[in-house]
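Journal club side-thread
Mid-discussion, someone asked how the predicted structure for our own chain would compare to the paper's figures. Pasting it here so we can look after the session.
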Amino acid sequence: MFLPNDLSYILNEFAEERENYFNAVSPPIMQTSNFTFKKVDDLRTAFADEMTGYLYSRGLNPTVEILRKKMAALDGAEDCLVLSNGAAARFAGVLANVKAGDHVVSVRNPYTWAQRTFDVILPKFGVTTTYVDGREIKKIENAVQSNTTLIYLESPNSWDYALQDLKAVADLAKSKKILTMIDNSYCTPLYQRPIDFGIDLCMQTATKYIGGHSDTLGGVLSGSHQMIKKIFDSEFLNVGSGIQPFNAWLLIRGLRTLPARFERITRSTMEVVNFLKQHDKVEHVIFPFDESFPQYELAKKQMRGACGLLTFTLRNGSCESITTFCESLKHILMAVSWGGHESLIIPKCSGIDPKDFIAGNMEHQYIRMYVGLEDASYLIADLNQALNLV
């Protein structure tokens, strides 16, 4: 992982040539659509390969380039692309690496828009997907077919935090010449660097921890220069899903405080986890860095830390009691996403028709919480008063 000096340099200095913009501490927002040329040969070169220089901000933009270089360095990758949101980054990475008739192996219950890509978009082109319990490498291996070109991972998952053994999956995939891609949004590169374990493509939604303020969207896709160039020349430029300069500037701003936010959120999350584990209205608490977590040893092996997201269930939880609890919170907001300054809650049953709720299905009872930057005591008091109303 990072040495403190490495991280400080990447976040605060790397890729920032301040002498080129009046020695300003904060980089400028290059809010321009296109760039001028004085030589026809230079324009010709830019037309031939948009990745060689600035031609049109749909491709490269100076503000975005600062962010792009920082994110590649954080991921330990040769190169990366920054897109308008996480779904765009995921879609570009998948679409670039499958063709008609191919097969994908994916972990079960991936993020909604990943699953819709596999279930709705790819079948239009004859691409099939097999979902597996990625906690067991043997199940991934058994799902591989002769036409498998992609293994898609999400470790940890954003609801039950299921992990995959990243090195084992990477070794398996390389032995069969299959590409691996992971959604690393839970950890960010500060707490997990999948490329170090041999994963080919690493994506994350920068909307969350990288931005940190719930005021912008972004998605990052990191890998080898050859892979990123391949995606840039096709899916990236064709779809036009690159991030805008102002949004990139907001993400650069967010990077400055990322370690400090992670430190506080990590500390507060453990206090919330310990409180919930001891409350008589709570049945289960799921958190990858809690010793009761089934894959705790693997989490400690390949993750530097865990923070923010945890899941819990109520004792004898019903759709009604879960609803009462969530609607009784006074300070913790009910909303999707995570990674911002504000603490959030979302019940799994909000995506289930009440008549289809099964009390005996633990997943239907899941309540996911994101611990933000508020004092832990403030959050615990809110949780306690809402739990006591159940």
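Post-session note: Residues 258-278 form the longest helix (21 residues).
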